[in-house]
Each structure stands twice: as structure tokens, then as C-alpha cells.
Amino acid sequence: MRLKSESKLFSPAGTPDKNSAKLSKRESLKVQKKNYRSQKKQAAKELQSTLSDSSVVVLADWLKVRGTLKSWTKLWCVLKPGLLVLYKSEKQKSSHWVGTVLLNTCRIIERPSKKDGFCFKLFHPLDQSIWATKGPKGETIGGIVQPLPYSYLIFRAMSESSGKCWMDALDLALRCTSLLVRSMKKDVEPAITSDLSHEAILSPVFTAHHSEHMNESDCEKHFEGQGLDEDSKTDREEMKTDSETESEEEEVKVFEDNTPPTETKYIENAREELGQQGDSSQTEEVDEENKGLIWMLVKQVRPGMDLSKVVLPTFILEPRSFLDKLSDYYYHSDILSEAVILDDPYSRLKAVVKWYLSGFYKKPKGLKKPYNPIIGETFRCFWKHPKTNSRTFYLAEQISHHPPVSAFHITNRQDGFNISGSILAKSKFYGNSLSAILDGTAKLTFLKRGEDYLITMPYAHCKGILIGTLTMEMGGKVSISCPKTSYRAEVEFKLKPFLNMGEASNKIIGKLKVGSDTLATLEGHWDQEIYIRDRATGESHLFWSPTSEVKSQRLKRYTVPIDHQEEMESERLWKNVSDAVVSSDMHAATQEKYILEERQRNEAKERKAKMLEWVPRLFERDPLTGDWVYKFVDMRPWDPSNDLLQYEQGYRIQTWTRHRTPVVRTCSITSLEQKPDTYPGRKIVSRNCSLKAKPLHVVEESESSAAEVENSRLDSDSSEPSKGRRVQKSSPRVRLTEEALVKALLPLTKLQEETNQSLRTIQTRLNALSSRLEDQQQGSMSSWPLFVLIAAFVMQVFVQWLFR
Question: Where, by residue number, does the polypeptide cross the bilayer (predicted)?
Fold first, then answer.
């Protein structure tokens, strides 16, 4: 009976359900492979997190390391579990990284030495490499030090106690390396074993008696079809299979996940104060108490002084931040949505000018100034477009305090436009008046057209500080220019004359030009009616007027509820100050404002003491142009066949897509460095289009067609998105805008000027040296005859003495 049962166990013919056993074996192997891949990723993730986390450090100190030239160099050694990272300094910057040693293959031993200190050796037993190929932040080229050995390192500590401490720490780090090892069968689900038959689970016990009756062919038949032949695959085939399986899993995840992305919660702003039109809303009578504050302020300043570091009285404060104030220009951004689809470039320019002028008529009552943002302060909101069912997102951050610089980014990819820029706020005092200057250029981009509109801002002028009535006006010349089409607008905001008391304030005049030719002129008042007059026909008609109907068409703004805001968001940050200003409690407003400003000063002192620089959270500098650019900017034109929704989560504006799609960060050849990111499900990939990584081609067609931005690896035709076809050919011609070319050549121009100045200095010094040498030669020539006479006299005396 026993022999019969054992023959059933070992003979395939005796298996009751052969197909089910094969299927369960394959499923088990598939699950094991899946667990193997996930555990391999987990181990790599743990090692990477250990390497990048600055808090995970076993020991860090200076050690001397002997190089291949038998000389010693002093390096900062950071010991982590399983890793030893070498730096040139304690700052641990990428440029100071020397190398990373993998401890899991190393052994450590004490090394005798005649010199002072304690020596120990870290080496590979089989004389193989102990170095990792990359650094903690992906560095591939280490700092310049003397060459280090390939398979070992010899260290010298300052004392014996320090050296033994390092050996104990290295032993601990080597043991911690084993914590990263995971068993392939550890996390196998219990449900798998239940699917297997009882015979497949039992371990057979072979005896000499049965092994004699089983020959080689019987063994082959027994294991035939059990899936064990896959173990004979080479490593390359296994890696290929794993990569294909992973790609298939990612594709399934991308195409089968229909869950909408998680968005930041926004609510509609119910109340909005627009102010009155005309001069009455721009003047304010100051009571006696506040006049005293103004006089005290005037005593502290002098004409021409910059007021950026002067604390202004709270009675003139508007209860919102300057970052919130900048969002006033986008309540009529639906005008830009209409401008993108216009075929005529002149019509597009007029639409852009109309949108620009639509942002000025909202003004608070009296003379009011928004809060100066605190460094690191942020603000976000969006406007909903009912006609196109799209959203215009607005993000802003205070990236510097002295000087005060505010960076902002506005995007509506679905309607086809982006706006970005930064503003340096400056103020000047002139005695009876002061000016608030907004220095900076905003760039409006029509994505499908590849057009950039460069826009400047007027300054705010306040007069009547000492004599007269306090009045706020806008002044200065601004420009809106498109380098691609050569169309531009020049608008001048005129201040009210001092003697002409009957003329209304807020007057503007302007010209619409192409090249040097004027096509039309503008005239009117920026808070009332503005008329445009065509130069060719002489006809004049209404260009813009903020009527009650226009005001009712303002887009609804949505902001984050204050209980969902982060600590550094404007509304939450200034809540106590705003509550006090609204309730007219100026004493409490001053106290709360002082608390915030004092905290900012203390944080600045701490950074200065630690020699740390402030790093903006949302913006970074373009290394070529020097402009502040949103870190997650996407300049790719909207593709209706692929793009589903543009949304914001955690200050990151993304696009929910059907397929994985790269982010295009720029429409010009000037781009940022590449920083790849992961694919968040069906969400868009944050990937830079750098010239070093992938060539970008900008193909410009006629004015009525859309510009196609092509990527060499993955791209879609943006001028005809409905067809959904890919562009196979790219034009080698890339057109540069005049401004981009000037900015790119500016460093070379400065270098050339410095070189010319150095050459002129060297030439001046050479001329002075040559003149000095000529004077010396002339002096030596004048003394030559005297030298000859003296020599002749000495010779004559010597001859006479000789013959005597």
C-alpha cells in the first residue's frame, strides 16, 4: 500500500488533475516573480532613502585617506547604514562629493602604523571595486582630489579612541546592511498555498530503494511541464522579461485607472469690492492723529530715499497681501481665451491690450496699500470660464525680501495661454509725494501660436502727503510687444497736471504699431471709457469701458478655505492683521504686523548665522535668461484627444491625461536643466525638455496656423490636435526672438567689455613702461661721452706708470 501511494506521488500518470497542478505552479511562479520585483524595488528605495536622508547618519568626522600616490588627504567621511560617503568639506554639496563606498562587499581590519594616530583598512576580499557609480544626488563626476585606490581604502584617525570608534561604527553599518535584504518568499500571500494540491506541498523523501528504479528519462518526464525549465534562462533574458512585465503593468495602470485625480479644495469668493469710478475713490482726508504719524514718518526719510525698509503706518493698509493684489488683472482672462483663436495678429494684439486695461478699474476706497509679503509667503486661486468650461490658475510666491521680489505664474492650457514673471517692488520719496515702482516684465505666451507678449507695468503715484489732499494715481509708460509678429502697443499713464485742476485723473494715451508704423491710437481714462482711432480711416469707436454689464461678466474667483490653507499662505498668515484693520483697531493691527515682521527678521538672522541662502519653493532661475520660472511649468499646447483636466494639488499644476505625456517646459531654445520625475498614474510627467537631453524644434507656420512644438521622443501635433497623429519630421530651423537673443548674448557682451577694459589698462601700462625705458636710455646715452673721457684718462695714467 505504501509503495502504491508513493508511486502515485512520483509518477505523473498517477496525478489526479495534471492540468490544475500545472496551472497552480505557473500562477505561484508568477506571484513569486511579482514579489521578487517589488522587493527588489523596495530594497533599492530603502538604500536610496538612506543615502538622501541627512538625518540617517551613524558617524561623521574628518579622516585622513591615503591615495594611490602614497600621500594623505583629509576628507569629511559620512557613515550611513551600508554606505560610506566621502566629501571635500562639511557642507556636503554636490560639487564637494568625492565618492561613495558600498560596505556590503567590504571587510575592515586594523593596520599597524609608525605614525601617530590609528590606521585601519577597508578592502574587498576579492580585490574588486568598492565604489558606487553615482553619488547621493546622482553625481557622476567627483570632486578633484588625489587618485584613490580601486579596491581598498586606508584611513587614519587622529587618536586610537577615535579610530576604534570608527571601526565599531563601520561594523555596525555593515550589520545594518543586512536589514535591506528581503526574502522572496516572505510576503507570499497565504491564498496561494490554498490553491496548491496537498501532494504539491509535501516534500518527497527519496530512499535508495526508489532512486534505483528511477532513471534519467523518468526524472525528465516527472518534471516535464512543471515550469521549472524557466530557471535555465540567462540573466539577460530574465531582465528583459522583468522589464516587459513592468512596462505592461504600468500601461495597465495608466489605461485602466479611470479615477479622477485628487485636487485642492477651493470655494467661490462671494464678496468682492470693486470701488467707485472717477477721482472720488482715489482721494482721502487724513485726520489729525494720522497726520501726526505721517509727520513722524517724513522726519525719518529724505527726498530720493528708497522706502522698501521703512515701516508704513497701518491706517493706509489694504487688508490683503500684495500677492493677492496682483491677481486683480485676471478677472477678465476670458478675453485672452478669445484672443488665442483670432487669426489676425493685429486683432490678437488689440485683444491683449483690452485684457491689460481691464485689470485697473478695481480699486479700493481711498489711499490704500497692500501688505508687503513675507519671504516664503504664497497665494493661489483660480477663475472658472463658463464659456469654455476651463480654469485659469494663479500661483504667486515671495522669493526675496530685500530686495522685495514677487514671482507669479498663471496658466490655462485648455484655452491656450500661460503668463509668468517676477516683480521687484521699489518706492521713492519726493517730499510731498512718493512713487511705488513695479520693476519687472511679465511674459504672456499663446501656446498654440508660439507667440510671447512682453508686458511692463505702470507705477503708483501718491501726492499730497504734506500739502493738499492725499491722492493716488497711475503713471509712466508701458509697452506690450510681440517679437515674433513685430506688433506692439505703447501706452502712457498720465498724471493729473498740478495747475489744470479741471481735468480728470487717470488719463491714458497710446499707440498700436507694427515696426515703425502706427496703426491706431488710444485715448481715454483707464477707469472709464477708452477710444481707439484707426490711422488709415480716421474712424474712432469705443475700445473699452467698465460698464455695469462688463462688471457683471467678471469671472468668479475661487480660493482655498482658510482652514485648508498652509501656514505661509497669505490669507491665513495675515488673518489677525486683516481682522484688526477691518474692525478699525489700528493698535492691534500694528502689534500683529510687528509680530510677523519680527519673526521674519529673526529667521533671516538665523539663516545668516548658518550661512544659508533662502531657496524658493515654487520658482527657480533659468540659468540662461536669469528669469524666475515656475518649477512645474508646462508649455505644451492642449491636446483634446489626450488631455482631460488641468488641476492643482499641493501648489503643483498638473494635467490629467489619457496617456503618459512629457511636459514641455519652454517653447524656445533656452531651457532649464533636466530633472526627471515619476509618472503619477495617469497624471502628467514632470520632465524638462533640456537641450542636453532632448532636442526641441519650434516650427513656425503662417499667422493663421498654430506653432508646432515637437519633441524627438514623445510628442503630438499641437496645430491639429483633433487628428491625434504624431509629427515624424522636425524642422532644423529654430527662430530666435530678438529679446531672447539679446538676453543670451548679454553675458558675452559684458565679458567683452571687461576684456576691452583690461586691454586698455594693459596698453596704458605698457605705454608708461616704454616711456620710462626711453628716458632711462636717453639718460644712459647722455653719460656715455663722460665715461669715455674717464676711461681714456685712466688708460693714460696707467701707460705713464708702466713706462716709468
Answer: 784-803
**Are the C-beta atoms of residues 396 and 379 closer than 8 Å to each other?**
yes
Q: Which residues have CB under 8 Å from 385's CB, separation 6+?
A: 333, 334, 337, 391, 392, 412, 415, 555
Give the contacts of 93 (CB within 8 A, at least 6 positions apart).
Answer: 87
Show the cell assigned to 287: 485726520
CB 657 within 8 A of CB 643: yes
Cα 689 to Cα 696: distance, rounded to the nearest angstrom: 7
Region of 500 (left: φ > 0; alpha: ψ -120 to 50; beta: rest) is: beta
Q: What is the DSSP string of 3-41?
A: HHHHHHHH-GGG-S-HHHHHHHHHHHHHHHHHHHHHHHH
Q: What is the DSSP string of 87-112?
A: ESSTT--GGGEEEEEEGGG-EEEEE-
Do the strands 530-534 and 540-544 form a parallel or antiparallel pair, or are they unpaired?
antiparallel
| C-alpha closest to that of 317 among 258, 386, 369 | 369
pLDDT tens-digit map of 422-469: 999 888 777 777 788 899 999 999 999 889 999 999 998 887 766 767
Residues 122, 153 contacting (CB under 8 angstroms): yes
Angle, helices 575-582 vs 586-609, to 10°: value is 160
3-class DSSP assignment, residue 646: strand
Max CA-CA distance within the chain? 152
Beta strand 405-412 with 390-400 is antiparallel
279 contacts: CB under 8 Å, gap ≥ 6: 471, 504, 505, 506
Please give the grid coordinates belonging to residue 166: 570608527
| Of residues 688, 687, 685, 634, the one with CA closest to residue 657 | 685
Three-state DSSP string of 237-294: HHHHHHHHHHHHHHHHHHHHCCCCCCCCCCEECCCCCCCCCCCHHHEECCCHHHHHHH
Amino acid (1-letter code) at residue 612: L
Residue ranges with strand state E in 447-604: 451-455, 459-463, 470-482, 487-494, 507-514, 517-525, 530-534, 540-544, 556-559
Residue 339 has pLDDT above 90, yes or no: yes
Round to whole Å and give the CA distance between 566 and 649: 12
Among 696, 733, 745, which Cα is nearest to 718's?
696
Of residues 783 and 663, more confidence is placed in 663
CB within 8 Å of 771: residues ≥ 6 apart: none
Residue with cell 486683516: 578
Distance CA 156, CA 72 (A): 9
The β-bridge relationship of strands 317-321 and 283-284 is unpaired
> Long-range contacts of range 511-515, CB-CB < 8 Å, 24 or more positions apart?
512/346, 512/349, 512/350, 512/353, 512/487, 512/488, 513/487, 513/488, 513/489, 514/346, 514/485, 514/486, 514/487, 514/488, 515/486
- The pLDDT score that the predictor gives to residue 738 is 66
Could you identify the residue written with the cell 503715484? 461
Which residue do the cell numbers 567689455 mark? 753
**Residue 667 contacts residue 684 (beta carbons within 8 Å):** no
According to DSSP, the β-strands at 118-123 and 152-157 are antiparallel
Cα gap 254→97, rounded to integer Å: 38
CA angle 717, 721, 726 (to 5 degrees): 35
CA distance 306 to 434: 10
Taking Cα atoms as reference points, which of 610, 613, 575 lies closest to residue 595?
A: 575
Burial of 794 (0-12, 13-18, 19+ CB in 10 A): exposed
Flag whether pLDDT at 513 surpasses 50. Answer: yes
Cis status, amide bond into 561, omega within 30 of 0: no
- 689 burial via Cβ count (<10 Å: 0-12, 13-18, 19+): buried
Residues 682-717 pLDDT 10s: 443 333 333 333 333 333 333 333 333 334 333 333
Q: Please tell me the distance from the alpha carbon of residue 427 to that of residue 607, in angstroms, as a whole number.
A: 26
User: Nearest-5° angle of CA 354, CA 357, CA 361?
Assistant: 135
